[in-house]
Amino acid sequence: MSDFNQGIIDEFRANNGTVTAMGFGRSLALVHSVGAKSGEPRVNPLAAIRDDEGWLLPASAGGSPKNPAWYHNLKAHPDIELEYPDEQGGISTALVTAHELTGAVRDEAWDRFKARSSGFAEYEKAAQGRVIPVFRLSPR
């Protein structure tokens, strides 16, 4: 894990789900997955939108032309745990199942991220034609 990600994780946990670095605020969640190849546990701080059906996660990889490693982890092992900022100002956990959205449903979800931050539109441009996947995390 990168030092940057570890710092984000540490701040998330120390500040009850709030991350001041880069202005993230309470917009991140910690995704606990299993490595697709290694089988090792992984934790990734990721942008997330919570709604009535669970959470949305974009596999933007900062605009890389390749999907992030965690994308493959969720495809191989979709039953995961999520740490998220709760409505009481703390952190809660949920057991969820990840599935990749497609078509118009994916496009609508992706538009929600672009509406939240112009950075996502920049990632889309930088991704060199890669359609950035979006996952729906549904409570189990």
TrEMBL record:
The lineage of its organism: Bacteria, Bacillati, Actinomycetota, Actinomycetes, Mycobacteriales. GO terms for cellular component: plasma membrane. This is Nitroreductase family deazaflavin-dependent oxidoreductase. GO terms for molecular function: coenzyme F420 binding; oxidoreductase activity. It catalyses: oxidized coenzyme F420-(gamma-L-Glu)(n) + a quinol + H(+) = reduced coenzyme F420-(gamma-L-Glu)(n) + a quinone. Belongs to the F420H(2)-dependent quinone reductase family. It holds the Pfam family F420H2_quin_red. It comes from Tsukamurella spumae. InterPro entries: F420H2_quin_Rdtase, Split_barrel_FMN-bd.
